[in-house]
Write a structure and sequence with these properties.
heterotetramer, A mainly alpha (about 100), B mainly alpha (about 625), C mainly alpha (about 500), D mainly alpha (about 525), A: about 100 residues, mainly alpha, Helix Hairpins, 3 helices, B: about 625 residues, two-stranded antiparallel sheet
Amino acid sequence: MIPLNYYLILSGILFTIGIIGVLYRRNTLIIFMSIELMLNSANLTFVAFSRFLGNLDGQIFVFFVMVVAAAEVVVGLAIIVNLYRHHKSISADRANLLKW
Amino acid sequence: MKYVWLIVFFPFLGFLINGFLSKFFNKKVVAFIAASAIGLAFLCGLVTLVKLLAYPPEARSIEITFYSWIKAGGFNIEAGFLIDPLTMVMVLVVSGVSFLIHIYAGEYMEEDPGYVRFFVYLNLFVSMMLTLVMANNFLLMFVGWEGVGLCSYLLIGFWFEKDSASNAGKKAFIVNRIGDFGFLIAMFIIATTFHTLNFKVVFEKAPQMFQVGSGLITAATLLLFVGATGKSAQIPLYVWLPDAMEGPTPVSALIHAATMVTAGVYMMARCSVLYALAPFSLGVVAVIGCLTAVYAASMALVQVDMKRVLAYSTISQIGYMVLGCGVGAFAAGIFHLMTHAFFKALLFLCAGSVSHALAGELDIRKMGNLHKKMPITHITFLSATLAISGIIPFAGFFSKDEVLFETFMSHHNVLYILGLIGALMTAFYMFRLYFIAFRGESHVEPELEKHIHEPSWRMALPLCVLGVLSLIGGWIQLPFFHNLKILGGFLSPVFHHAHEISKMEEASVSVWLEGALMTLSLIVAGLGILIAYKFYIKNPELPKRLGEKFAGLYKLLFNKYYVDEIYQMVVVKPLYNLSEILSIAVDQAVIDGSVNGTGRSLMGVGGVLRRTTTGYVQFYGLVMFLGAVILLLWNLF
Amino acid sequence: MILGIQYIKDSVGFLPFLILLASGLIILMGSAVSGFGDKGRYGSGVALIGSVLALLSLYVLYGLKRNVLFNGMLIIDKFSIFLVATLLIATIVVILISRNAIAKEGAEINEYYVLLLFSSAGMILMVQSINLIMVFLALEIFSLAVYVLVGITKQKKISTEASLKYLLLGAFSAAFFLYGLTYIYGATGTLDLQKITNLVAAGEITNRFYLLFGGTLVLFGLAFKIAIVPFHMWTPDVYEGAPTPITAYMAVGVKAAALAVFLRIFGHTLLKISINWHTLFWVLAVITMSVGNICALRQDSVKRMLAYSSIAHAGYIFVAVVAGSNYGYGGILFYLLVYTFMNLGAFGVVIYVENLLGLKDDYDSFKGFGFRKPIIGLCMVIFLCSLMGLPPTGGFIAKFVVFSSAVKAGYIWLVVIAVINSAIAAYYYLRLIITIYTRAEETNTVEDRPIEGSIYNSIGLIISLIGTLILGIIPYGVLQLAMRAVSL
Amino acid sequence: MHETNFPILSIIIFFPIIGILLIAFTERKDGYLQKWIAFWTTLIDFIISLPLFFAFKNVADFQFVEKVNWIPSLGISYHVGVDGISLLLVLLTTFLCPICIAACWKDIQDKVKEFLIAFLFLEVSMIGVFCALDLFLFYIFWELMLVPMFLLILVWGAPARRVYASVKFFLYTMAGSMMMLVGILVLYFYHGKVTGDYTFDLLKMFQLKLPFRYEFWLFLAFGIAFAIKVPMFPFHTWLPDAHTEAPTIGSVILAGVLLKMGTYGFVRFNLSLFPHATMYFMEFMGILAVIGIIYGAFMCLVQKDLKRLIAYSSVSHLGFVMLGVFALNVQGLTGGMIQMINHGLSTGALFLLVGMIYERRHTRLIAEFGGLAKCLPLYATFFMIVTLSSIGLPGLNGFIGEFLIMLGAFKAKWWLGVLAASGVILAAWYMLWMYQRVMFGKVVHEVNLKLKDLVAREVWILVPLIIFIVWIGVHPNTFLSKMEPSIKNIVSKYEKIKISEGNTKINILKNLKGERS
């Protein structure tokens, strides 16, 4: 059996990739996808833990997370579209009116 | 005896009536109220004297308390009056001279717009002065002490539109305050030592608690003397008195000659027991008094303003009184105080009469040969001049001679010689004044010449009365004959303790010695008069030549040794500059600077910190992520 | 079957949530029917009625015993009831002060109220939940609604920008939060908070590293919502960009809901496992209030100033967290209630100036306001005094209780720093008071006419004012409630 | 403890609220009606407060005590009462308030309603501070006073620097009182921990024995709040600014009552609660006080603005009060207490007088005046009396206070008394110089010739003050006797400490006692 730590390390790597994506990429869509990646890495951890602990709570959680992620995407896209309307761009750097 | 408070009350009532109701009166009524208030006080004083004389001499010290004034813990001040011979002498002198001067001022101030104000102040002054001399404790005395200082301030600055007058008033008050500083601290010492400020208690306890020469008592008496130097214009605090001549002349006569300035002497006489316990202080007092007598006389030699000459003369004469106290002859000091009150008040009133006639002129170089047109003024002035110069049988002779005699008897030989030199100078400058102003050629401006006139009876009467007193005032204390020392005998219960402590022998001295010394002083006085006569009648060019020959000395004397300037430079200016520096460097720069600086630096930090909110969402994310990393590191390691 | 009946019974404890949900749906359906105009009268009316009903329903709940609902998903206890009440009051006041503002902002009016009610429902759910699944769900429910609310005036650039920033950072932090939850699950093997508490208390944690790691990330997620430095960066931007009523709502509601969960997770559980937490929170409290206050000194926009002030207040609240006692937690509840009143009041006045008078939200717009509108000006002064923590307002009592809890626990230097901060904070509140009572130049004056429909705003202000003052003058009853709420 | 059923103190404290309500319901334009209401409110409040004085028994206990639970779970109660220390301050407050209202009759024409409401509110808080016997309640009243005073300066102040001045006042005071809050909390919990009784009740706190470490820090925490309020030397710079910019009666109240809250605080809290720390800091505080006396006087010398000058003279005078308080003997404390009243009367009167001339000339620069005694003789007379009272002329009130203070200080530390006495000289210098520059000399500015002398209203404002100035000077025992038992009570604590610790105090007396015969 593959040890738990392998899963955890994998998910940690995924999570880190997600963070780097969020912080590094300027395209809001990509940022959003990176966030999804982070959520999915969490899902992976949940499932792994669930399997190793032998209870189902974690697996149930994963379903909820998927639903929430979908909802978040809906709202997020709407806002990104709105951003595009104003700036004719979806670069995160363009949203820089509010500062200081 | 219960009704002694009336002595203080009447002048105060006069002050109140004139102060509040004067708009209903005309000038005559105002003057009448003011003068009669003093007159009544004088009468009450006489009645009290009669009652006091009914007691046996040892019992002539009656304390009447009215109410508990300040009570804080064990410290209790009972306000009340102490009636004893010393008080009575002072009360009668003060109220008597004041009464005369009030009458005089009634006419003298006639034309002044501040007529009412003048009498209000004057009445207040008298009531304060009487409080001072009648008080039964240091603190109440201090009330009078500062109260007369206040009135002096107000009256010196009476013509407040003149800058010189208001400056002089302020100067007088502040210099007096410096003296009061000493008085206050002396009171603290006494209060903490004896737990009371009551005269009787303090003077009773002091010899029991302390030996002669005790440091504490020395400190207290020296500090008290600081107070006296302020009030009685002694070195180094005499500087206010010459300037005080800015006030109206009756004021100079009353306050700055007869009464207030002698308060210091009175106070020392009152504290004779304490001084007797502190021989060192007595020495200091004697030296300062003697030095002042000579020093002030030297300045009087060359002054040309009549009142200023008199002012320096006053300082000098008080110096003699202080000298008297300093050698332990308190009675002599008081005696001189009394006679001085008569003749110096008279001199000032004469000066007033002259300036009245000359439309306010006081420069003696613009006078001369007045004796014909102003016979009464002339005669009375001469009487006073003889008195102050110490010519027998005028009052000043007896008193000054007693002071000098006692000085000699207490083996202060140097002081005695200095005193004689002072007496020489006194005779000289007084007769210089007399000769220049009343004799010789007239230097009066021609248009004024016509207007010279004798004053009316209201001004003349006080002159005459005081003139007579200057003559006979000394006869209550005659030398040689023990029985004829009426004043001394009367006062002796007061100074009894002091004499006991200092073990001063009242043994009879050789009549020959006394006679010889007396003759010596007479010779000295005569010499002074002679020199003056030489200088100013016989050979009027001589003084000028002398002045040119000793130009430096002359200038030094004429400018009063530059003491005012030195004080200004050494004390006043530096303090003022210090406050300016403090204001800018400490108040504004350091304190306010640090207060505002804290605010400003916080604002600065705020200005920097707000820049961290850059507006870039990913930067925010980065900060949050780094925060998370730090948190993790913190928690896990 | 039996389970079904049980669930129906349990929904009584779930009543406020249901009522809000139902009113939201009613508005949605009603606005689909033509005739219920866009003016928002309908939407706000229903929303108002719904939230008032929800508040009233708390009375029913209060009678219930402490009770776990839905197989350990939700709980009905005094703690949650107190916070639900706070949230509902906030909702009601926000609805009142939104009434005119939102119409003028040109937002989709009915949707606005629907979203408001849904987010409120989400917060209530969060407060009541004792299962990590429910916590996460509730968090997302209200967050999603608030993302939209922030950007609801979609024609405005800054509003869109604010919602984007909030969304991106919110989702980012939610991911961390979730990742943290996985590790807590991994450490304890359960998602039930009560079980976790028991396990921690019994010391039966197999892997303390997992727990600390997970706890830290959960702290991240919650600190983001509470706006603790350094997770506060979004706050000023989003507060400034959002429509003012929403700003007010976020400052109060989001903070309260997140703090509720924070207390449930940390208060009696995670705080106990490591002494490090106290030191950590000490540092967080200090930097949060200091950064908040110092940054607020230099703001020109009142909304932005209030944003920083809300950060600083989070710092003050954290002082009680550091104290870590029931007394302190009660203080936090009380603080939240007072903060609701005073902050909504202050924002209400800002709305009055910004939306009803048609001025901007910078300091200059307030110039002479106290003379033009003396009563509302005075209200603003009272709210600001309360925010400053001056008696006789609730702000003082709240601060007093919170600080005293720290003193009691021996954190005197923390309190000294906190009171120095209060003094610094006084400056920027004062600056607003000064502006209010500075004569405006003539060019800046607005006609002094009664403003149409300002009555709702005024009612909102009056509620806030009464709340602020009552809690300051006779705080005893409410304080008792708060204290009882935390003694689990 | 003398419990009375009739809640007279509460009535006195909260009576102005009635005025506030009445004024709130008047039309904005009825400025004079509002002033009349305010005047009668404050006057009646004063009349109500008079029975306090007559019914007061000369004992050390708190009297007219009322106690109602307020927040029982925290041990907070509404607990008020007066003793000899606070009685006169309460009366001073109620006495000054109607005078202030009368003084603003012509001065304040703009936003009268708000002004009066703020003022009456201020009165409530001021009386409350002096009556409160519960630390929490005290703190509430203490802070309550901040905002109305702030607004008085901000809204009705002189336009030049009112913002700066009001903010400075507010932040300074607030910073200090925040430290006091921490102190109160520490004290509260310590008391709770030791006795098991969590309470803010001051009377119970008095029984508490604190370890020295606690006393030390608590003394500082309370002390900083009070020192700022007094204000003591390095914390004084807010005062000249606040005074200068405040409207006349703002200055009067500030000088007359608000500053007393600081000195009162020292007596009531620091001295009574932390005796050992007080002993420890005694010399330090005395030195600060003396620095304040002399430094304040120096500052006065260079001021060009009348109000600023008087403000700095307050620094100097309150230095005297602090010196008296920290002499820790009956004389010093009595002097300090009576000097608080004196300062309220004479500095209050000075500010009123400056306000009157400001109304006429719209300037307060000394250089703008000169020779006023000629055109305004009545004004000059009043000014003179008050000036004399301020420089401590015997026979007027200032002397009684200063003398007792210096005597007390001399007893405690002789050099402090000596240094303080030098302040008396400086006071004469700066006050008389100021008086000279304003009143004497020739009228330099034409405008001043046309000035009108005081009108009846202004005379009647000043007369009551003058009456008390003279009364205290002539018969201070009327007032001293009321405070004596309470002061003795405090002092006895220190005497016990001195005895128990065998404190070897170096003072001049003991040094020289060896010389007794």
